[in-house]
Write a structure and sequence with these properties.
By secondary structure, the chain is α+β, with helices and mostly antiparallel strands. It folds into three domains: about 50 residues, no CATH class; about 180 residues, no CATH class; about 230 residues, Alpha-Beta Plaits. Helix content is about 30%, strand content about 25%. A hairpin with a 2-residue loop joins β6 and β7. The longest helix is centred in the N-terminal third of the chain and has 16 residues. The radius of gyration is 26 Å and the shape is globular. The two termini are about 40 Å apart. The relative contact order is 0.11.
C-alpha cells in the first residue's frame, strides 16, 4: 500500500477541484473524482475519500496522559523516578498512529460498542498505577460496572474484577483492580495485571465492558478492521459475540416485523397515524401519549426522515451553577450590534477563543463543560451528565419502518417493505469529542431591535457530517420481504 501522509487535501477541496475539472474536460463528476484519486495513488474515489477522512479525524488533538497520581504521598518517587517523569509524552502522537487509533475508534462506534480510552505512562507502568480518568469513570457508570463515588478509601475497599487483554492470536487473562487510595482526595485509580507486557508508554488502549468484566484492545498496535476480516481472530470472536448479545431485542423485533410482512394487513384507523397505530397494535405495544411508542426500549417510527444529524441537540446551560443565569445575560455581556438587532451568533470550541473571546474548557475532575471569556471569566456550565442525557433522549435506538399503502375494497392495506435500524449514540464518547474539538456549540441569541425581545435558537451542539461515525453506530437496513 502506498504510504500517504497527513498533508493530503481536504474532502471539500477535492470536490471543488472535481467540479472545476468536470467543466474543463467535459467529463462526469465521478470521472473527475476518479482522476484526482488516481493522481494521489488511489484506484478509486471511495478508498481515497476514506483516507482523506482518516487524515481529517487524525488532526484532532490527543489528550495528554494522566499522571496525577505522582502528586500524592502514597506514591514514593525517587530521583530516578523524577527523571523518568521528565520523559513522559508531551508532544503529539505520530500521524500514522493517530490515524490508526481514529480508525479503530470508528470501528468500535460502528458496531455500537461503548468504550473508554486510557494511555499508560512510563511512570504508571513502573508503579503499576493508572488514574481512573473522568472518561473511564463515566464509562464505568454508564455500564453500571463500578461507581468510584460510592467506594470507600483504602485497601479494604478495593474491588477486583476479571479482565482480559485481547490480541488477534491470544486472549490473556488479567485482573482489574479498582480502588481509591488513602489520600486527601482519594482520587480513583485502576490497574490491570500483566499490562506492561501488553502495552508500552503512549499506547492508546480501549476498555470494553461485557458481562461485568473488562476487555482491553490496544488501539495503537491492532487494526480492528483487519481483525474483523480474520475468521481466526480472537478480537473478531469477542466483538461478534458482543454485538450478537446486545442485539437480542432488535433481532426479536425484526422477527416480528418479518412475520407481519408476509402479507398485507388492514389499517385499524384512518389518517396520518394509521400505520403507527396499527403497527403498535399488531406488536402488542400499549399506547403511551407521553412519548413515542417503543418495543422494549427501541422506538418505532414509520417512514425515514431526510434530516441530517449535523445538529446533535439543543441544550441550555445549567443556570443554577452558571455565573450567567439566562441567555439574555450572555447576550448583554458578549453580544454585538448588527443592523437593528443585538446578536451573539458564534461557534464555541475547546480548541481556541472565538472573536468574542469565548471558548470551552472541559473540567475533567468535575465532569463539566465550561464556557469562559478570555480564559478569566466563567460564563456558563453544562454538567457532562446533562449533555449525555440530552444526546440519548434526542437520538434513541430506532426502527424506521417503511411500508407501502393501497386501498382494497375501501380499506387501507399496509405491506411492510424494509426497516432501517439506527442505534443509540456512543454516550461515553461525547465529552472526549467535545474536548478534542470535534463537537462544537453555536450560540444563536438575538434581541430584536423592534420589540426588544430576546430569542435563543440554541445553544446547538454540532458535529461535522464526516465525523458522525465517531459518535453514531452504522445504520443497518433489513428487507422485510
Amino acid at each position: 500500500m502506498t504510504n500517504h501522509n497527513i498533508t493530503l487535501p481536504t474532502i471539500n477541496r477535492v470536490k471543488q477541484r472535481a467540479k472545476k475539472l468536470k467543466i474543463e474536460r467535459d467529463i462526469s463528476h465521478s470521472e473527475a473524482l476518479l482522476l484526482i484519486s488516481s493522481e494521489h495513488g488511489f484506484s478509486d474515489w471511495k478508498s481515497f475519500q476514506e483516507e482523506l477522512k482518516n487524515n481529517e479525524q487524525a488532526k484532532a488533538p490527543t489528550p495528554q496522559p494522566s499522571i496525577a497520581f505522582v502528586e500524592y504521598d502514597d506514591v514514593e518517587m525517587s530521583d530516578d523516578d523524577y527523571d523518568l517523569l521528565d520523559q513522559e509524552r508531551e508532544a503529539e502522537l505520530a500521524a500514522d498512529i493517530k490515524k490508526r487509533v481514529a480508525s479503530n475508534k470508528r470501528q468500535l462506534t460502528k458496531l455500537g460498542i461503548e468504550f473508554s480510552v486510557f494511555e499508560p505512562t512510563i511512570t504508571g507502568l513502573k508503579k503499576s498505577i493508572l488514574d481512573a480518568t473522568q472518561q473511564i469513570r463515566v464509562h464505568f457508570e454508564l455500564e453500571n460496572f463500578h461507581f468510584y463515588w460510592a467506594q470507600g478509601q483504602g485497601p479494604d475497599y478495593k474491588v477486583m474484577k476479571n479482565a482480559y487483554l485481547l490480541n488477534d492470536n491470544e486472549v490473556t487473562e488479567s485482573k482489574a483492580s479498582l480502588y481509591r487510595p488513602m489520600t486527601k482526595q482519594g482520587d480513583p485509580r485502576v490497574w490491570f495485571r500483566k499490562l506492561p507486557s501488553y502495552t508500552t508508554p503512549g499506547d492508546q488502549v480501549a476498555i470494553i465492558i461485557k458481562d461485568d468484566e473488562t476487555y482491553l484492545i490496544n488501539l495503537t498496535t491492532i487494526v480492528i478492521e483487519e481483525s474483523l476480516s480474520d475468521s481466526k481472530s480472537h478480537i473478531k470472536s469477542f466483538l461478534d459475540n458482543f454485538v450478537t448479545q446486545h442485539n437480542t431485542i432488535a433481532d426479536e423485533l425484526l422477527g416480528k416485523l418479518k412475520e407481519l410482512a408476509k402479507s398485507p394487513f388492514p389499517a385499524l384507523r384512518t389518517g396520518d397515524t394509521a400505520i403507527g397505530f396499527t403497527l403498535e397494535e399488531k406488536l402488542g405495544i400499549s399506547a403511551n401519549s407521553s412519548k413515542l411508542p417503543d418495543y422494549k426500549g427501541i422506538e418505532l417510527k414509520s417512514g425515514r426522515g431526510n434530516k441530517t444529524r449535523t445538529t446533535l441537540f439543543a441544550q441550555v446551560a445549567d443556570w443554577s451553577i452558571s455565573p450567567c443565569k439566562k441567555s439574555a445575560e450572555i447576550l448583554n455581556k458578549y453580544g454585538y450590534e448588527r443592523e437593528d438587532d443585538f446578536k451573539l451568533y458564534c461557534t464555541i470550541t475547546t480548541q481556541r477563543e472565538n472573536t468574542q473571546g469565548l471558548a470551552f474548557i472541559y473540567d475533567q475532575a468535575k465532569d463539566q463543560l465550561q464556557e469562559w471569556y478570555n480564559n478569566t471569566d466563567l460564563v456558563a456550565v453544562w454538567p457532562g451528565a446533562l449533555l449525555r442525557k440530552r444526546l440519548k433522549e434526542k437520538h434513541a435506538e430506532t426502527f424506521w419502518v417503511e411500508a407501502k399503502s393501497e386501498v382494497v375494497d375501501g380499506v387501507e392495506q399496509f405491506q411492510l417493505l424494509k426497516v432501517t435500524h439506527t442505534k443509540s449514540p456512543i454516550l461515553s464518547q461525547l465529552l472526549p469529542l467535545i474536548q478534542s474539538g470535534v463537537v462544537t456549540m453555536d450560540h444563536l441569541i438575538k434581541r430584536n431591535g423592534s420589540n426588544n425581545r430576546v430569542s435563543e435558537k440554541g445553544p446547538l451542539f454540532k458535529i461535522n457530517k464526516r465525523d458522525l461515525e465517531l459518535l453514531f453506530p452504522q445504520p443497518v437496513i433489513y428487507s422485510l420481504i
